[in-house]
Amino acid sequence: MLGDEGSAFWIAHRVIKTYLDDDEGLVLTSFDTSAAKKAIFDYFGLRHNVDLLEPHYHFEKNYYSGLCQKIAELARAGDALCRHVFYEAGFFLGAHVMAVLQKADLSWRMNSEGVNIVCRGGVFNSWDLLEAGFRDRVTPDIETKKIVHSIRLVFITSSVAVGAALLAAHVKFHLDLPRNHSYQLLAEFRA
């Protein structure tokens, strides 16, 4: 899973691993894992730690990632472990963005209009939990290192099928159709 940090799968896996490592004494955590354990066990229908083998050996990423929604609920209710993992996820998402941008053409990334970053996936429904980590990661690169003039995170609300159809029309029939996607502005970061 190269480059999956910050995804719903990564968040679910990180919480499971933190709980399991702590419970088995491998790596102790300062966080209370009891709420995470209950969410994990309820979501996967488990009775014992060994039952965690099933969702890992018969892996379905979409189903596994669905645990992220339960973790988000715990985070919003104040669970410190879940809030921390979402902070880390936001930080990693910011790191991914900055890693790509620092290798992009300088004139493009320093354009006064800034760079739009398209956010896709259910994890962005939890932007309120990701934002602090993301902000803490990108702000120094924007304000001090001047890697990019500004970035706008946009969450596309139209179906991915629309984008696929537009691309197919362009490639197959050389049609340049309007690309007026519906989107929601998640955040903007400026120098």
UniProtKB/TrEMBL annotation:
Signal peptide: none annotated. Gene3D superfamilies: 3.30.420.40. GO terms for molecular function: N-acetylglucosamine kinase activity. Coiled coil: none annotated. It comes from the Eukaryota. This is N-acetyl-D-glucosamine kinase. It comes from Mesocestoides corti. The lineage of its organism: Eukaryota, Metazoa, Spiralia, Lophotrochozoa, Platyhelminthes.
